[in-house]
Amino acid sequence: MPDSRKNMVIDGARLWDSLMEMAKIGPGVAGGNNRQTLTDADGEGRHLFRAWCDAAGLTTGVDQMGTMFARREGTDPDALPVYVGSHLDTQPTGGKYDGVLGVLGGLEIVRTLNDLDIKTRHPIVVTNWTNEEGTRFAPAMLASGVFAGVHGQDWAYARQDAEGRTFGDELARIGWRGDEEVGARKMHAFFELHIEQGPILEAEGKDIGVVTHGQGLWWLQVTLTGKESHTGSTPMPMRRNAGRGLAQITELVHAIAMEKQPSAVGAIGHVDVYPNSRNVIPGKVVFTVDFRSPDLATLDGMKARLEAEAPAIAEALGLGIEIEAVGHFDPVTFDKGCVAAVRDAAERLGYSHRDIVSGAGHDACWINRVAPTAMVMCPCVDGLSHNEAEEISPEWAEKGANVLLHAVVETAGIVE
Ligand code: HGY
Ligand code: MN
Ligand code: MN
């Protein structure tokens, strides 16, 4: 990095304005966002992002999973681009920064390079991955998973939401099914800026998380089948209440994770009760177990224990049980060279930082399979995320984007 550029920084006010502008699209009911993937709100957010990329002189391509790639040319057209980005889709009760900071932080570094008239040898491509959240169409990180060769595109297109609509139909309906072959793009490196979504950085007063690893994940969808019957006239000994199975397996999931502290987590966040009527005993319950750990043996051990013990709970309650794995990735070790670029950037800028393991999954976890990859994290208030009250400070956003700027430019190579 030439001395003249060692102090270059982004325009923090412009980044914050862009975050607030994007937050107006798909508003939640409590100050956050509900911009779920492939909804009209997602489509509107994509159009805004595309307009900003056009204004920054970028050339935007879209692949067959709807992922958006906005390219800033480098001086060497044969050099593989440095990709930078995250996701614009949100949880149904999501925050304004989860994913969005990484996409608009990537756009901000391009805007800054334009302002400073800085050329890089490698092109830079700002990326918006489709369906990172996996809440409407499981699994999470769906488009980046197809890009990395983990999922087939036809399988991804067939994924259904709770109303039975398919990913492929919804992508076409909002008009964002591109023509690029998914995964055809080759990368020199990929960087993702993301809020921590946990309490560590704020608690330790650190500005930057240098992400060395990512937790692995299992999503196990469990279907319990009992018998719908009248809550008033059915004698207790005759009941086959699927809700009791949910209650006991919820406690089992908690116990399994608690036994593996501190490097394990487990919960059930999604539950569908049928027929979900006040005076009908639940005949069927469908729910998803979310297990995570940075240690592969611990992660797989938790899955194995649930698969061994949940059937016994079901049998004792007279319930049928099916368990289906609907999401999975092993723990991730990010590229040492890219991680060093992030750490060096934080050092150069004089920011407090610490190495950290990502508790959440990210598109970077899949892209790490096909390109050297690393992540930059900034704190979030009380570590809260996947909640409309998710909050960060403009200063945290600015410092995170500055580290992203330096790491990306160092990797893309400045051409004076
Ligand atoms: O589930 C996750 O970790 C991510 O937020 N989709
Ligand atoms: Mn995210
Ligand atoms: Mn998320």
What tags apply to this protein structure?
416 residues; alpha/beta; nine-stranded mixed beta sheet; four-stranded antiparallel beta sheet; 12 helices; 15 strands; binds (2S)-amino(hydroxy)ethanoic acid; binds manganese (II) ion
Written account of the structure:
The protein has 416 residues and is of the alpha/beta class. 35% of the residues lie in helices and 22% in strands. The protein contains twelve helices and 15 strands. The chain has helices at residues 12-23, 40-55, 100-116, 142-147, 153-158, 167-173, 200-204, 242-258, 296-316, 336-349, 363-367, 394-412; strands spanning 59-62, 68-72, 82-86, 119-120, 124-128, 189-195, 208-214, 216-225, 265-274, 284-293, 320-329, 332-333, 353-358, 373-378, 414-415. The strands form three sheets. Strands 1, 2, 3, 5, 6, 7, 12, 13 and 14 form a nine-stranded mixed β-sheet that branches. A four-stranded antiparallel β-sheet has the order 9-10-8-11, covered by helices on one side. A hairpin with a 5-residue loop joins strand 1 (59-62) and strand 2 (68-72). Helix 1 runs antiparallel to helix 3, helix 1 crosses helix 12 (394-412) and helix 3 (100-116) packs across helix 12 (394-412). The protein is elongated and about 80 Å long. The model has no long low-confidence stretch (mean pLDDT 97). The chain binds (2S)-amino(hydroxy)ethanoic acid and manganese (II) ion (2 copies). The site of one manganese (II) ion has 4 residues, from loops. One manganese (II) ion binds at residues 91, 98, 133, 386.
